[in-house]
Amino acid sequence: MSQSYFSDPGRHAALLDDLPADPTVFPGGPGPDWRRVADLLDADQERWPGRPLSEPRPRPVGASSRATALLSVAALRRGGVPARCRIGFTRGYAPAVVVTRPGGSESFGPDGFVLAGEVWLAWRDGTLDATRFGGAAAVRDAVLRDLAYANRDELPLSETWGPMGPDLVGDLDLVDDLAALLVAAFLRDDVAERELAERYASDHRVRPPRDLAPVA
Q: How far apart are CA 154 and CA 200, in angstroms?
């Protein structure tokens, strides 16, 4: 899988060759939510010119959990592994990003991760209280972000588009369909993955505008 606009390391691509194959060595934490991996690596190399990424930094530039996951995805893609970021929630009900790759489900991320689509479908079935996850509108937004991430538009979690916002408006049946497809694709359903890609390409309501997610 080629790099996306967001995972592309730019002129620092060779730095990713020094990283170990296991992405769990990159713990996320408080830090800037770098928009692109190239931005993160620019800042790192400005502070630590020429230092391989495998060497510890006394003063790392820091990165959010999303940016750290995206760095892991960039390294895996650099090695020819078709990895992706996916969006959901942790056991503590906070939004979370994990890295997935063929041959397994969750490869890197917090314990107790629940996919955004699973939360949405459980709320729609009446078996889950969405207020624990910030409300139904927040869960809907997480589903739309997961759709973008599944299609390699790994935008910062602060970005919004389409029906996103504090109010639960728009076609909820559409969100139902997307949530079910996202869960199925997460479980390696190739038919669901193809349908997601088709919907993402054709439905402007669920796709971020190109000023937010330029084509790589």
A: 14
